């Protein structure tokens, strides 16, 4: 058992904005080992996967559970097109594991570093009308409660735990296995190109209807936007280009200039637009969805009623443009289908997803504090894995099944061992 526990090492998230020194690191190599650790301990327990959340979900001075060794395919159902995997399985490994089985993820975002449990537990998502987040695809889960009880949940057994656990925030216990609904594997064709921002805002509803996936990035101090669409394809995969512009390196350098030199942010944004060239490529879905994300940033994201999404974008752009704040990273706009997971930000409504970012070289708070009230005005719900300032009082007003989710959490964790300071702010009424 000693090999599964250590008392050394700082935890930090991907951007470096969240750090903690756990009293003990748990790295169980099996579910049985995890059960023994929980039963033989006291105090706070938090869980970490890839550390790709920007919020303080994983911070603890108590026991921090790493899921790194709980990884890999458990089973699959060829007829139902479902697959069960260990909770620590990285998304970037899922595609190549599912492909020989004839399966593919129905949707995913442009970052695939997250663990399966982290992606489901925070309702991580891609884009596409009619396509839900990872939480919407959960058909079953297995978790170990803080007391060491092992529970299986699906639509016929412990259905309430499934609905609460599909977006769990790691607050119910330690999820060890997740069953996802998949689809037959498929290829995607990507096109990424520039359009005038005004044209994007006027035509995006049509783009979203006419493409399987559509999204755009709008810079705050240029009149152009980057549009990306993805569609299923039977064309042969495109070869790797001989040269790729090191986009992340350029983004990193221009961000530091934009934030270090007064008035340089508009110039750097125009430079990025000038350097952009149209992208066309075809490949397996899991190869096309992700994009490199080496330039580190912090992020705020809210999910709004779809009908008001573009209106909100215009207000955010205008508000930032009228301010003296510097920012290089663009606003990102996507669409996500409604789902039934109780604490999913997409519960019960088709949504527009709007993200804003700041490079790690600068303080994100002035920009996020300026924009966040606009998201509230439009009825936005925050992405659980990203930065926001709402507490339980305000969050409860946004979720029709809030009380049900709290009931299940208190049933599974009556002592509140799975709660850190951040989660107590989010989930416990003062």
Automatic annotation (TrEMBL):
PROSITE patterns: FAD_PCMH. Keywords: FAD, Flavoprotein, Oxidoreductase. Residues 1-18 have a biased composition (Polar residues). The keyword Oxidoreductase applies. It holds the Pfam family ALO. It comes from the Bacteria. Residues 18-185 form the FAD-binding PCMH-type domain. One of its GO terms (cellular component) is membrane. GO terms for molecular function: D-arabinono-1,4-lactone oxidase activity; FAD binding. Residues 1-23 are annotated as: Disordered. PANTHER family: D-ARABINONO-1,4-LACTONE OXIDASE (PTHR43762:SF1), L-GULONOLACTONE OXIDASE (PTHR43762). This is FAD-linked oxidoreductase. It comes from Halopseudomonas oceani. The lineage of its organism: Bacteria, Pseudomonadati, Pseudomonadota, Gammaproteobacteria, Pseudomonadales.
């Amino acid at each position: 058992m000693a090999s599964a526990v250590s008392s050394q090492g700082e935890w930090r998230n991907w951007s470096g904005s969240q750090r903690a020194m756990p009293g003990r690191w748990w790295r169980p190599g099996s579910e049985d080992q995890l059960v023994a650790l929980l039963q033989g301990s006291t105090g706070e327990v938090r869980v970490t996967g890839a550390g790709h959340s920007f919020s303080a979900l994983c911070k603890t001075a108590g026991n921090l559970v790493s899921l790194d060794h709980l990884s890999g395919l458990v089973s699959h159902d060829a007829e139902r097109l479902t697959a069960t995997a260990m909770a620590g399985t990285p998304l970037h490994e899922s595609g190549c594991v599912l492909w020989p089985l004839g399966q593919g993820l129905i949707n995913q975002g442009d970052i695939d570093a997250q663990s399966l449990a982290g992606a489901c537990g925070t309702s991580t998502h891609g884009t596409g009308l009619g396509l839900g987040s990872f939480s919407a695809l959960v058909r079953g889960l297995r978790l170990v409660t803080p007391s060491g009880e092992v529970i299986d949940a699906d639509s016929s057994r412990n259905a309430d735990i499934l609905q609460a656990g599909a977006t769990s925030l790691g607050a119910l216990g330690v999820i060890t296995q997740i069953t996802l609904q998949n689809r037959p594997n498929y290829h995607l064709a990507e096109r990424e190109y520039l359009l005038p921002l005004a044209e994007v805002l006027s035509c995006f509803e049509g783009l979203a209807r006419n493409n399987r996936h559509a999204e755009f990035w709008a810079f705050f101090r240029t009149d152009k936007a980057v549009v990306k669409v993805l569609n299923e394809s039977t064309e042969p995969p495109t070869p790797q280009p001989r040269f790729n512009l090191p986009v992340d390196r350029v983004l990193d350098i221009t961000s530091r200039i934009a934030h270090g030199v007064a008035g340089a942010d508009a110039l750097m944004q125009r430079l990025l637009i000038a350097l952009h060239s149209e992208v066309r490529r075809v490949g397996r879905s899991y190869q096309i969805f992700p994009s490199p994300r080496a330039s580190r940033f912090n992020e705020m994201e809210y999910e709004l009623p779809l009908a008001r999404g573009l209106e909100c974008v215009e207000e955010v752009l205008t508000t930032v443009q009228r301010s003296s704040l510097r920012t290089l990273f663009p606003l990102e706009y996507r669409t996500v289908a409604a789902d039934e997971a109780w604490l999913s930000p997409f519960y019960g409504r088709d949504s527009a997803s709007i993200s804003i970012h700041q490079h790690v070289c600068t303080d994100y708070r002035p920009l996020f504090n300026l924009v966040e009230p606009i998201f509230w005005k439009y009825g936005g719900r925050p992405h659980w894995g990203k930065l926001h300032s709402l507490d339980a009082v305000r969050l409860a007003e946004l979720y029709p099944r809030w009380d049900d989710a709290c009931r299940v959490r208190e049933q599974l964790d009556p002592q509140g061992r799975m709660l850190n300071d951040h989660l107590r702010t989010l989930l416990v009424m003062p």
